């Protein structure tokens, strides 16, 4: 079943790229024709669409860096982003992602809405939430069945966003018609607390 879902996601992504390319090549009203580059959404528009994609997709692929093997990806069930687009997730403290993040805090969260043929990737730095009171305040109720002993059996992370890439042809947010460069929102750097 995992291969089937993966194959479906790959096919859906390919279909999204093909549809965007065809729409641009045919000069769809409201979209630039080939060679003119894509219309640039405002940051507010892109973030509004990004939040909608995240809520529909619900699950994300968390991509980390592994010293021995390079990029490592897995599905996670993160909480919806807060008003600053900070995304939180929990994991088993003995999982490999904990070791990977401790060595390199740079991560990516990839959300794909298969029905809408749109996606958002949030790039940022993951930091562990160690304070018990803060951990309780930020806890997402959906995690409780999987982490009944959350004080000792769950490591909570916040992903502090640095940039987000959004593609949603239905909302008029597409990549450049020649390079396919994706519309990107950049976030102000935050000081680590």
Q: How would you characterize the overall build of this protein?
A:
With about 190 residues, the chain is α+β, with helices and mostly antiparallel strands. Helix content is about 30%, strand content about 30%. It is built from five helices and seven strands, in the order ααβββαββααββ. The protein has helices spanning about 1-25, 45-55, 95-105, 130-140, 150-155, and strands spanning about 60-65, 70-75, 85-90, 105-115, 120-130, 155-165, 185. Strands 1, 2, 3, 4, 5, 6 and 7 form a seven-stranded antiparallel sheet that branches. The chain is globular. It starts with a helix and ends in a 7-residue tail after the last strand. Mean pLDDT is about 85; it is low at about 1-35.
Keywords:
single chain, 193 residues, alpha+beta, seven-stranded antiparallel β-sheet, 5 helices
Please give a quick description of this structure:
The protein has helices spanning 2-25, 43-57, 96-103, 132-138, 150-153, and strands spanning 60-66, 70-76, 87-91, 106-113, 118-129, 155-167, 184-186.
- What composes the largest sheet? 7 strands, antiparallel
| Strand elements, count | 7
Quote the beta fraction.
Answer: 25-35%
What characteristic shape results from the CA principal axes? Answer: globular
What is the H/E string? HHEEEHEEHHEE
What is the secondary structure topology, with strand pairs?
Elements: H1 2-25, H2 43-57, E1 60-66, E2 70-76, E3 87-91, H3 96-103, E4 106-113, E5 118-129, H4 132-138, H5 150-153, E6 155-167, E7 184-186
């Amino acid at each position: 079943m995992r291969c089937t879902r993966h194959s479906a996601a790959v096919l859906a992504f390919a279909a999204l790229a093909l549809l965007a390319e065809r729409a641009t090549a045919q000069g769809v009203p409201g979209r630039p024709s080939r060679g003119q580059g894509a219309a640039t959404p405002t940051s507010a528009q892109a973030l509004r669409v990004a939040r909608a994609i995240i809520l529909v997709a619900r699950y994300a692929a968390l991509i980390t860096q592994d010293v021995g093997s390079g990029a490592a990806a897995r599905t996670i069930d993160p909480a919806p982003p807060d008003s600053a687009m900070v995304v939180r997730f929990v994991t088993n403290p003995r999982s490999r992602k904990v070791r990977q993040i401790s060595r390199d805090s740079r991560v990516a969260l990839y959300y794909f809405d298969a029905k809408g043929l749109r996606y958002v990737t949030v790039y940022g730095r993951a930091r562990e939430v160690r304070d018990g009171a803060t951990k309780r305040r930020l806890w997402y109720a959906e995690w409780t069945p999987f982490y009944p002993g959350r004080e000792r059996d769950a490591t909570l992370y916040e992903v502090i966003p640095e940039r987000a890439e959004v593609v949603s042809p239905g909302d008029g947010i597409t990549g450049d018609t020649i390079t396919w460069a994706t519309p990107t929102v950049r976030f102000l750097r935050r000081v680590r607390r």
